[in-house]
Give the backbone structure.
Amino acid sequence: MQKEFLFSGFGGQGVMFAGQLLAYAAMDEGLEVTWIPSYGPEMRGGTAHCFVIISDKPIGSPVTRCPQVGIVFNNPSFVKYEGEVAPGGLLAINTSLVSAQSHRADISLLPVPATQLADGLGDVRMANVVMLGAVLTAVPALPLEAIRHALQTHLPEHRRKLLDANYKALEKGAEFARSMVKSAPEL
Amino acid sequence: MELVMTPTEMQVVYEHPRSLADVPTRYCPGCTHGIAHRLLAEAIDELGLLERTILVAPVGCSVFAYEYFNADACQAAHGRAPAMATGVKRMLPENIVITYQGDGDLVSIGAAEIMHAAARGEQITTIFINNAVYGMTGGQMAPTSLPGQKTTSSPLGRDTHLTGAPIRMSEVLAQFDGAAYIVRRSLHDVANIRKAKKAILTALKVQMAGLGFSMVELLSSCPTNWGIAPEKALDWIEENMIPHFPLGDYKVRDDVKAL
Amino acid sequence: MTKELLKGNVAIAEAAVRVGLEAYFGYPITPQTELLEHLSQRMTELGRVFLQAESEVAAINMVYGAASTGARVMTSSSSPGISLMQEGLSYIAGSELPCVIVDVMRGGPGLGNILPSQADYFQVTRSAGHGDFHPIVLAPASVQEAIDFVELAFDLADKYRHMVLIAADGQIGQMMEPAELPPMRPLRDSTPDWALTGAKAREKRVVTSLYLKGEDEEAFNLKIQKKLKQIKKTEQRSVEYATEDAELLVIGFGTAGRVAYSAVEAAREKGLRVGLLRPQTLWPFPEQRISELADCVSGCLVVEMNAGQMIEDVRLAIGGQIPVTFYGRTGGIVPMPDEVLAAIEESYHRLQITV
């Protein structure tokens, strides 16, 4: 079963790293995975995005037209990708920074005030991990434990002191999603 | 009274340098490439470097330099000898790597490569033959052609308003910190040829000591493409080229002086 | 060994280090710069040669010099940079020196853009430089294959005294996938008998591509052609998926081949008898296998990220016996699997094959 995730936001919001965490966790779980970023001038300002595909079979194209899960961290990303989430899929929205409303009835919405929740934990930069915790709770593609393990193994050396804070952020997002989502969408 | 010397009493005062291959060259009569080759070969011999030397031949009249020396050699693309020499030297830092380049090769198409080799302080030695003209292609204007000089591509004489003035590369390269030894000599008479030989010896010693980039520019004649008889061509160097390309030491770093 | 999540560019660089790369010369250009950056650190810490050249022109000529000494040497670039390297590539071909060149292709012509592209298929397989030669060209479709091809490239380069070009694209370079790197190998312990080392206790050696007499140049050309013929005979490589009972054969290399794989899978789910052949060598082109398959299928669809270049080789291999159709995107756009699926369905129905 193939699961496709699109992460999009401003450069500096940790969009790339959130996708990489997911990719590391999938790899550690023995799954096939691809991670592909937007790159070049697009990264400097504007939106940055990355695409993560997880599968139990070899992955062909690392990009699809309509990802099953869209995770948008800012307004431009919402505008760009809201319409692209596959019918029956999930759109996770960082409501701290996205003011627009989705009117799509064919997808599930997961509004998460990720930046505020991260701020509450003392570090707005954790919004990416809060979001990942929320998404993986709504779409249990991988256990949260796999992300915790990925953080432990792959967090860069100079960020290791943030390990506990990352764990807390992941749990905060999961907790928020549990309170929001009555039933996870079937993917 | 008869002067008779037996073979044992005879002294060798002049012989073919060991580093110079015993083959005919393709150079025109009166061309000073032959003198430059001989000076370089003598210098390699005197410093005992033949077995360590790797020569990088250019594109130009001296494209066959690899045939004329008994050293290992390679043949670079036009202007790229300093880059190729960089590749060789970085792999073989114990060897002596020498590029031999003309003015079209070094000053025109290879201007970037020679400047960056000098700037990096690449541990190579360049012999730069400046004869103010493209030789092999038949006498076209070079970046070192003199103002007003008639060539096959400046038939009315070099117009500096259209094509710029001669580039003085020794002066340019002397600006780079990586350049340890940059001098200009001439091959138009015996006294100057002797000075040129001394400079080549110093340049090679700079490389042996690992002091940085070294280059000897040699003002040379091209009787064929200048359309001047060989002897007169030597006078032409003195009368016309030297005023534009003053002889002298453009960079002799203190560590070179101490050699 | 365990798998690591590796970016294509970094994986290629690290693989080269591990299979004995002695020297790298390069110039920054997107989308391959991480390759150069990784080597700037690794080669330096290992005491090997890394040099950022002043241009791609200089970089390839440094490669030319280093390869003259018998060293394992590599450069990398992207389309516009490869254009600048064509001069040096030709000299390297004319001097029969082994080396590896990585081309992480991007959109063109001109400055184009930095997106993934396959628009330089002709450049790398046909016109890598002036004169009559082809580089060996390997086209990876994944990070793992890129790693494996680095090792293969150096081995083929040494085996044939010939340049090997790894033709990737921006997507392969930028993508991260789990992959396994080879173990660290020791550097070579011998020097080939043609390498420049200084003429000590032996005749002098010369590395040159100059043959002034027509007869000598022709003799040299015939020698290269003989070598290329041997390479063509023994080094054709491709992989296949679901070709056993296929009516329609899809052919795509690198990233396009990967996208085509997704589309073929989807077509199979719809019950269409479609198979995929993905060339791993672009030169030599896997014409033997394609020719064999042409006897078994009713039609062929070529998918490329260009306006149709490899299709010429496919047509030559097939020789007009079955219809060949084309689907391609240009400008650095990677086709989506659904577009390729639509092209498959159209070709399939044009062949009037009933499900």
User: Anything to note?
Assistant: Chain B has a mean pLDDT of 96.
